[in-house]
Amino acid sequence: MTEATLGALRTFRWNDGESTDGYHGVDIDRSGARFFTWSHRQGEGRLERGAQSLEALLDSGPLVTPPPAIARQLVAEAQRWLSED
């Protein structure tokens, strides 16, 4: 599990702990959360899995189920963004 911070955008990535072919991830910022998978296979790269508003993330949980630690961080990020508005 890794995290990268670029200004206001935060990206969280995770894999199943066994596969080396790629990983799942989510970018989150003031506009919402965007879920994706990334493949290391030649010619594949990033594949968008869906987008979710911050409100929907808080109401229903993440669109794609991440590990519990990342789910908690996504909820905290959504709450932080909404409290700043």
3D architecture notes:
A hairpin with a 2-residue loop joins strand 1 (2-6) and strand 2. This protein is elongated. The chain is built from two helices and five strands, in the order βββββαα. It is α+β, with helices and mostly antiparallel strands. Helix 1 (54-60) crosses helix 2. A five-stranded antiparallel β-sheet has the order 1-2-3-4-5. The model has no long low-confidence stretch (mean pLDDT 86). Helices cover 28% and strands 41% of the residues.
Number of domains: 1
Element pattern in H and E = EEEEEHH
Helix/strand/pairing category: alpha+beta
Q: Distance between termini? A: 29 Å
Unreliable residue stretches: none
Give Rg in angstroms.
Answer: 13 Å
Order of strands, main sheet, comes to 1-2-3-4-5
Average pLDDT confidence is 86
The biggest sheet amounts to: 5 strands, antiparallel
Total helices: the number is 2
**What fraction strand?**
35-45%
The geometry reads as elongated
